[in-house]
Amino acid sequence: MGLHWNKAALALCAAVTLGPASVAASELGVVTMSVVPSTSSAVLYVAQDGGYFEKHGLDVEIVEFTSGAEAERAMVAGAVDMGGGGVGSTLIMANQGIEATNIVLFQDKPIFTLVVSSALDVEPGDFSALKGKNIGISSPGSLTDLFLRIALRDAGLNPDTDVTIVGTGGLSGHLPALQAGRVDAQMTWEPATVTITHEGAGKVFMDLRTDEVPETLQNLLGSSLQATDEWLGASEENLEKAKAAARAIAEAARDIKADPSLMISTLQQIFPSVPDDLLAEIAQVEAAAYNPVITAEAIAHMNDVYVEAGLIATPVAFEDLVDPRLAAEWE
Asked: 113-217: CATH homologous superfamily?
């Protein structure tokens, strides 16, 4: 799941769409942000539509992609100013010689759940009951694959011999895979989680958005807004834009945590076919993880997990991933 990029990444913007952007004049000018529309990135849309960016002098254009890897490649290639992506990706980039900084955290937990088929009589968290079963992931090497393997190993199971891991593709394939009996369990995320459970096709077995997970999977940060060190250091103006973005997103994140309903209109745009009652359920669960602060302890834990999983060869120092000038804006 490493990030690989070249000049072709500059062409990515040709295939993107722009999210709703403020047209109001701003003292810091226009800044572009690449993102995948999701529950994690909802904070960006709330910050934009709710006037948080404008309050801090930014005119933000959100550039939408279909995968986190594409969004981060656009940032690395300079096609956009800042990009949304997993904090873990900045560890991977650092090991590839790509220097990037986490400007502000979106969520302090991953967005994934493991659901099991309703046909299985198993208790949540009883991994021994999954031995010999087929478990779906989006694709080999994906975060769903990584987190599943970590959880299985933590429970004393061998991911390569005790279960069969099956690639089921994107969200649209997860419910059909369970309904057809192709898999007995599926690593997924919203809105598939609420769809699967409300359709009666499955039940939540492990929810990474909560603290009720194996110890190894605790304190694994979710997504953040990022920028390359090259862009941040190119001018004082860029640094000020990053500071303003950090302030705006931190404010929006805390407001969402206090009032999850602030996410509803954004989720309606991202998932237009999902009923409002399910969107409200998603918002309630996801909002609890909104937290702008990245801690040294979390980065140290992620280093341990990523090294153990073979995703990185060398741990990355906290100081190489977080700029204290930006961290000061999270308070």
From this structure: Periplasmic binding protein-like II (3.40.190.10)
Residue that the structure tokens 């997970």 belong to: 213
φ and ψ at residue 330, rounded to 5 degrees: -80, -20
Render pLDDT for 268-303 as a digit per residue (tens, 0 to 9).
999 999 999 999 999 999 999 999 999 999 999 999
Other residues' Cβ atoms within 10 Å of the Cβ of residue 162: 17
Nearest to 73 by CA among 12, 18, 16, 139: 12
The whole-angstrom separation of Cα 248 and Cα 252 is: 6
Q: How far apart are CA 199 and CA 128, in angstroms?
A: 26
pLDDT of residue 16 exceeding 70, the answer is: no
Give the three-state DSSP class for 29: coil
The ranges assigned to domains in the chain are 7-109+220-330, 113-217
| 327/331 Cα distance (integer angstroms) | 8
Topology match between the domains 7-109+220-330 and 113-217: yes
pLDDT, tens digit (0-9, with 9 covering 90-100), for 26-36: 689 999 999 98
- The whole-angstrom separation of Cα 246 and Cα 292 is 8
Does CATH number 3.30.420.40 belong to domain 7-109+220-330?
Answer: no
The pLDDT of 105-129, averaged and rounded, is 95
Helix (H) or strand (E) segment spanning residue 33: strand 30-35
